[in-house]
Amino acid sequence: MTFGKIAYALGVAAVGVTLAIGSSAPSFAAKKKAAAAAPPPPPAFCIEPYAPVCAVKGGMKYTYANKCFAASDGAKMVSPGPCKAAKPAKKAPAKKPAKKPAKKA
User: Fold this and answer.
1) Which residue of 33, 48, 62, 102 could cross-link 66, Cys pair, CB 3.0 to 4.6 Å?
2) Where are the beta strands (DSSP E) in 1-105?
3) What is the reported pTM?
4) pLDDT tens digit sequence for 8-37
């Protein structure tokens, strides 16, 4: 039984050394900056009634069926109601082609 006691003592010593070495190493997790809290996930599905809203996503305005759909698409609501259509740029008046002078015979 002496061999069993020696093997047990060596096993306990190995575990103790492993714990001592593992606990003395610096913790990398403690040095990391706290990650910013992620925004809450959007609702899985929208059951709100139709109430159009104008929202901005990626610098462009879009009309959504309601604010739930806008939020689930990641857009920021700008105003209630559909987005106003952008006015088209005025065209410059067309220039008349210059008349060619008549050839003299």
Assistant:
1) 48
2) 53-57, 60-64, 76-80
3) 0.44
4) 888 898 888 887 777 666 666 655 555 556
Strands 76-80 and 53-57: antiparallel
- For the CA atoms of 63, 69, 75, 81, the dihedral, rounded to the nearest 10 degrees, stands at 30
Evaluate whether the domain defined by 45-85 bears CATH number 3.40.1440.10: no
Residue pLDDT, tens place only, 39-54:
666 656 888 899 999 9
Give one word for 82, left, alpha or beta, with left for phi > 0 and alpha for psi -120 to 50: beta
Give me the half-sphere count of Cα atoms (radius 13 Å) on the Cβ side of residue 38: 3
What residue segments make up the domains of the chain, in order of their start? Answer: 45-85
Place of tokens 């410059």: 92
